[in-house]
Structures are given as structure tokens and as C-alpha cells.
Write a structure and sequence with these properties.
Shape: elongated
Strand content: 15-25%
Number of domains: 5
Radius of gyration: 38 Å
Structural class: alpha+beta
Distance between the termini: 54 Å
Strand order of the largest sheet: 7-16-21-18-17-22
Number of helices: 20
Largest sheet: 6 strands, antiparallel, barrel
């Protein structure tokens, strides 16, 4: 311990608050730093050190051991002294004052160095809401009462039940959020929802007498997020009250989502109903999927800490997991950072490992988002900063500890540790049989879609069922066509009679020639009318199953050319149109074996690859595959059709057996592909990304 450190007195402005006891009943306190408004929870031993500070660590430890039932030694007191100095809870020495002055004279926020160190997280206080929160609280209090909560819960449940009865309409409305206007509406709804979220924290904190120092905007990787400073909630001795403050934001968002769901179900189509859809989606999705997660320092983390009464859950579980990893992997005699039971150790280690994996995925996603948000040079730079700071740095700090203590690892374990990555690298480099997964639609290989040849009136539609080749499927009539036929016949007869008269008259040669020309025109018109009339009789091109007959089309109904009356299927041969990503197409060959599984079913059917398109699919012909209609393929609306967002290629497969329901259906395809090593596959993808993004 620094010789001068034990002589540095505590800062006079620090405040000490009695906190809720620990789980074992031991007393606890909180040190409040009013400058940074941070709270530090300490136990009984640290409190006794604090009472006797400053002084010689040996003397402090001896006095504690003699006058209290606690065990203390010089090392424990020195560790506490380092804690006080690290968090600037003691008066700085002359050297410390110099360091603080140098730090204060460093580059300000207008300098690029400041942004390099702070762009990941910046807090901007905007308001000090303590006075108006207290003034508005009486009007908000009825919503938090028992009857108010019961009314909100019942209204939300009613809204969920009503939406379930029209789920398809709701789901299609959600998919419209992908449009530009939908994204704008979603962002506005997000701002409203998050504002109410933070007000929920603020009002509940005010209700329990906790001062809300300020509210403002936090820039997380330059993305604005509202925040409320409720750090003084650690003054509360009851964990239930801290839990109420932590969970208030999520509860407000869920209540808003429930009421918006009910409003959507009750309103007619229009802008207000769409706004309710945005609020409902924002509340249900972001509150439950993001804020409720305990693996990031959002509301879910503080809720979990308060429920378990386990402060600093991330730090303590991470330290426990590192100690377990060093014992298990390296064989060190590494003690746990704190005494826990075997069950608690397993829970903390599991939580820490899952948190590491979760954060790895989230931080990689943030790094990609940062890259895409800015122009390419700055995006690459910020991407590298994000990856190095949040992913590489924590990993490398642990590796540095391993390198420093490598001599403590036994020789046999060293050999195993060196062999593990070598074996893993060989396993990744060996080509293994792989499969390509894709979505597709199974349909009859031969099918005849029946439409009216032009606007006409239906006289007959064959009932659904098995039909023979040449059987009549639909018949139409066109009054205009009948009138044309009558008129043409009359003109033909009149011209023929006139020609007969002109033949007897030798002076009518020129008139005879003109009449002959007109007669030929009318005969051609009559032939065309006959052909058009023949198109009104639609026969089966092959024997098959006549299905999907529109029940709304009855004799006497007028139909246009876009109204499908039914479809004739050949049930003996079925194919699947699967849509494969561009990077996977080259691994598929005609004749490859595949398996097709219908949507929401477990049974699979054998299939064989027949053909592979050489050009990407410009328009998705099967609406049931589009995401806007509940399908798995992301598309962009393009008039009446949809364009896939990703480059997709159609792969046609032939099923070994017909579909049991003899009806077009979507499903999932698994195609056997060429063997390829994971290393080579990864390198190809990285190379493809590098080539794609290399243009400035």
C-alpha cells in the first residue's frame, strides 16, 4: 500500500446511508459521492475501516479484531484503502491534484480525442424534474392504485383476445412497418413509448421519496436514448421499493402496449388505428425483448439484481466465472472471489457465460450498425474501435493474466491446451458434408389456371373434383360479342345479295370490286367472332383435379381477366420451387438429394434437384413466401408483386411422392450440397464482403 494513502483523509462531502441488510443479515451501508451522484455499497468490515480512517492499516486491523467479532488483517484494510483511492473518495494528494489538473486540462468535447474516448456512451442532462414531478404525482397516483392496475390489466387482456380473432389483419399491418412511412411512424411511436417509460421510473421514484436528479438523453454509439437518473434509489432500505422503481418503465410500456392493442381492435381503419398498431408493437417487442433482458445494463438487469438482492450482478458473476474457468481449464488453485454455495456458484457461472455470449452478439451487431451509419472510412474506423474496445479488450485482458501465470499450469495440461486449438483447426479445415436450407412452395408440376379470356358473364362453372381431359371447366357469354356476331352475319348476307345483283349488271364492275372487299372484311370479322366465342368455352388440357373453385362466382356473375375461377392440377407429379441465397447456389448440383418439410409439420418427403436458375429472381411469384404475408422471405413491395431484398435463385426440385392434401403449400427444403470446410467457407464469405465493400 502507498505509504501516503493511509494518511489521506476522507472527503468531507461524502454521505453515508444505512442500507438494507445482506442476505445473511449482516448490516450494510451506502457511500454517496454527491459530485458524481454514485453510490458504493459496503459491508460491516468496510464500515469499521471507514470509522477508523485514516490510520495505519496494521493498527486499524488490530483495533477491529479486538473490539468487534470481525476478522481483519492488514491486507484487507489495504484493499479497502485502494478502493477508496480508486473511486476518489479520499482527499487527493499533491500528486493526485496534479493528475486531476492535467486531466481537466485535456482535450474538451470539441477535440477528436474526446469523441474517440466518449462516442460509445455520452450522457446529456436536459431537465431537473424534481419540482414538477412532485406537482403532477397526485394526478398519476390513481393509475398505480389497485383499481387502476386492475382496469389496465383487464383492458389489455380484452385487447389481446380481440386481436387474436383478427390476427392476420394485425400481422399484415405489422409488416407494413417495413415501408418508409411505416418506419417513420414506428420511430415516432418509439419516442412516445420511451418518454412514458422514463416518466414511469421518475414518478415511482418520486413516490418513494427518491430525488430524481435529472433526466436527459444518452447517446449509445451516437444513438439517442432517454434516461432518468434514479441512482439515489440505493438509499431505500427495502428491496421491494427499488424493484418497483426498476420495473416501472417496463410496466408502463406494457400497459401502453395493452391499451393500444385494445384501441387498435376497436378503431376503424385509418391513421389513428395505424398509430395504435405502432404503439402496441413498440411496447410488446422492445419492452419484452430488449429492456427485460438481464444480460445488458437495462431495466431487466436492475430488476434481476433487486429480485435476487444481489448488487453488481454482472461484475460479481463475471469474477466468479473467471475463477471457475481458471480452475477448470488451467488447473490453477484459484479461490472464489466471495464465499458462495455450490448451487450459487453454478448459477453465477452459467449467468456470466450466457451474458458473454449475448453481449458478443449484441456488440457485433452494434459494430455493424456503426459501420453502416457513417460514410465508409469513418464507418470502418468506428467498427474497429467498437470491436477492439468491447470484444477484443476484455478477451485480451484475461489472456494477459494467463500468460503472466502460465508457469503455474502443469506440463500435461499445457500439452492438452495446445492440442485443443490444433484439433479444432483441423476439424474446421476438413471438408464435411453440408446442407443448404431454403424456403419453397410445393405445387403440381402441371397446372392450368382458369381465368376469363376477357370481361364476360359466367354461364357455368364445373364443380370441384376429378375431371377428364377435354371436359368443360367454365363457360362464359359476352353480349357484345353476340351483338357483333348478329351484326356481322347481317352484313355478310346483305353484301352477298348485293354482289348477286351486281353480277347481273355489267356496268357495276367497280361497285362489285368494292363490295367484294367489304365482304372479305366481314367474313374475316365473322371468323374472329367465332374464335372469340370459342375462347368462352374453357376445357381441361389434361385429366386431373379441379380445385379452388371460387364459390362467389355463380352463373350470371360478371368477371374480369384477373379473377381466377379455379385451378386444374395433375396430382401425379409435384415439384418444389425453392429460393436459395446467392452464396449457397454454387454448392448445389442437379440431381442432388433433398428433403421437403411442410410448414408446421414434422414429416419430410424425398426430393431431387431438377434445375437451377442462372439469373436471380426479380419478382417473387409466390405471395405466401413474402414476409408481408407471413412468409419467411423479406421482400419490398413493387406494385402488385414483391421483390426479394436479398439475391435469391430459384432451385426446382421434384418430389418423390404427391402431397397428401393435393394442394399448393409452402415449406422448408434441405438440400445436400458439396462438402466444404468451415474455414474455407468463412474465408470465402469474408472475401466476398471485402470485395463488396472495397469500393469507396
Amino acid at each position: 500500500m502507498d505509504a501516503a494513502l493511509d494518511r489521506l483523509p476522507l472527503r468531507e462531502d461524502l454521505r453515508l446511508h444505512e442500507a438494507a441488510p445482506d442476505k445473511d443479515g449482516a448490516p450494510a451501508w451506502s457511500i454517496q459521492d454527491p459530485v458524481t451522484n454514485r453510490f458504493f455499497r459496503i459491508g460491516w468490515l468496510e464500515f469499521e475501516c471507514l470509522v477508523r480512517w485514516p490510520g495505519d492499516p496494521e493498527a486499524i486491523a488490530k483495533d477491529i479484531a479486538e473490539n468487534t467479532p470481525l476478522f481483519a488483517d492488514r491486507e484487507l484494510v489495504e484493499d479497502f484503502g485502494h478502493f477508496l483511492a480508486q473511486h476518489q473518495l479520499v482527499r487527493p494528494s499533491a500528486q493526485g491534484v496534479a493528475r486531476l489538473a492535467a486531466k481537466a486540462g485535456g482535450p474538451g468535447w470539441l477535440h477528436w480525442r474526446w469523441w474517440l474516448h466518449h462516442y460509445l456512451f455520452i450522457r446529456i442532462p436536459l431537465v431537473r424534474p424534481e419540482r414538477w414531478l412532485a406537482a403532477v404525482l397526485p394526478f398519476v397516483r390513481p393509475l398505480c392504485s389497485g383499481p387502476g392496475v386492475a382496469a389496465i390489466v383487464l383492458a389489455s387482456l380484452l385487447g389481446i383476445v380481440m386481436v387474436a380473432r383478427q390476427w392476420d389483419t394485425f400481422a399484415h399491418g405489422v409488416m407494413d412497418i417495413l415501408s418508409p412511412s411505416g418506419i417513420l411512424g414506428f420511430m415516432i411511436a418509439l419516442a412516445v413509448s420511451k418518454t412514458l417509460h422514463e416518466l414511469g421510473h421518475a414518478f415511482v421514484a418520486t413516490r418513494y421519496g427518491v430525488r430524481v436528479a435529472h433526466m436527459g438523453v444518452a447517446l449509445v454509439v451516437l444513438w439517442p436514448m432517454l434516461y432518468t437518473d434514479t441512482s439515489e434509489s440505493w438509499k431505500l432500505r427495502t428491496p421491494r421499493q427499488r424493484l418497483a422503481i426498476s420495473s416501472a418503465g417496463i410496466l408502463v410500456e406494457v400497459a401502453l402496449a395493452g391499451l393500444s392493442t385494445l384501441a387498435w381492435a376497436l378503431l376503424d381503419d385509418g391513421p389513428l388505428r395505424q398509430a395504435m398498431l405502432y404503439l402496441a408493437t413498440t411496447g410488446w417487442v422492445l419492452s419484452l425483448a430488449l429492456n427485460a433482458s438481464p444480460f445488458m445494463r437495462f431495466d431487466g438487469y436492475f430488476i434481476a439484481s433487486d429480485l435476487l438482492d444481489y448488487p453488481n450482478l454482472h461484475e460479481r458473476s463475471g469474477a466468479m466465472a473467471r475463477a471457475w474457468l481458471r480452475r477448470t481449464l488451467l488447473g490453477w488453485d484459484e479461490p472464489d472471489p466471495e464465499p458462495v454455495t455450490v448451487r450459487q456458484r453454478r448459477a453465477l457461472v452459467g449467468f456470466a457465460v450466457f451474458t458473454w455470449i449475448y453481449r458478443l452478439v449484441v456488440f457485433l451487431g452494434i459494430a455493424v450498425a456503426v459501420y453502416l451509419m457513417f460514410f465508409k472510412v469513418l464507418g470502418i474506423f468506428l467498427f474497429a474501435v467498437e470491436v477492439i474496445w468491447f470484444i477484443v479488450r476484455p478477451f485480451w485482458s484475461e489472456i494477459a493474466v494467463w500468460r503472466k501465470r502460465w508457469s503455474e499450469v502443469r506440463p500435461g495440461r499445457r500439452f492438452v491446451l495446445w492440442m485443443l486449438p490444433a484439433v479444432a483447426l483441423v476439424a474446421l479445415a476438413v471438408p464435411w458434408p453440408t446442407k443448404v436450407e431454403a424456403s419453397g412452395v410445393a405445387r403440381a408440376e402441371r397446372q392450368q389456371l382458369v381465368f376469363a379470356p376477357f370481361a364476360a358473364r359466367v354461364t357455368r362453372v364445373a364443380p370441384g373434383g376429378t375431371v377428364a381431359q377435354g371436359a368443360s371447366l367454365a363457360q362464359f357469354e359476352a353480349p357484345d360479342l353476340s351483338a357483333r356476331e348478329v351484326r356481322t352475319d347481317a352484313l355478310v348476307r346483305a353484301l352477298e345479295q348485293r354482289l348477286t345483283g351486281l353480277v347481273a349488271d355489267e356496268r357495276g364492275m367497280e361497285q362489285q370490286k368494292a363490295a367484294t372487299g367489304r365482304l372479305q372484311e366481314q367474313l374475316a370479322e365473322a371468323e374472329a367472332v367465332v374464335e372469340e366465342t370459342g375462347r368462352l368455352q374453357i376445357a381441361a388440357d389434361f385429366a386431373g383435379q379441379w380445385a379452388d373453385v371460387d364459390p362467389a362466382v355463380q352463373p350470371g356473375t360478371w368477371v374480369g381477366t384477373k379473377t381466377q375461377l379455379g385451378v386444374l392440377l395433375d396430382p401425379s407429379s409435384w415439384v418444389v420451387d425453392a429460393y436459395v441465397e446467392q452464396r449457397e447456389v454454387e454448392r448445389i448440383e442437379p440431381g442432388a438429394h433433398a428433403r421437403f418439410r411442410l410448414h408446421q409439420q414434422w414429416n419430410t418427403m424425398d426430393a431431387t434437384v431438377v434445375s437451377i436458375d442462372t439469373t436471380r429472381t426479380a419478382r417473387l411469384p409466390h405471395a405466401m413466401l413474402a414476409a408481408r404475408y407471413g412468409g419467411p422471405i423479406a421482400t419490398q413491395p413493387d406494385g402488385q408483386s414483391s421483390t426479394p431484398v436479398e439475391a435469391l435463385y430459384r432451385v426446382r426440385l421434384r418430389l418423390a411422392q404427391p402431397l397428401p392434401q393435393a394442394r399448393e403449400a409452402r415449406g422448408h427444403v434441405s438440400i445436400e450440397a458439396q462438402s466444404q470446410s468451415l474455414v474455407l467457407r468463412t474465408l470465402k464469405r469474408l472475401a466476398a464482403v471485402a470485395v463488396r465493400e472495397s469500393g469507396f
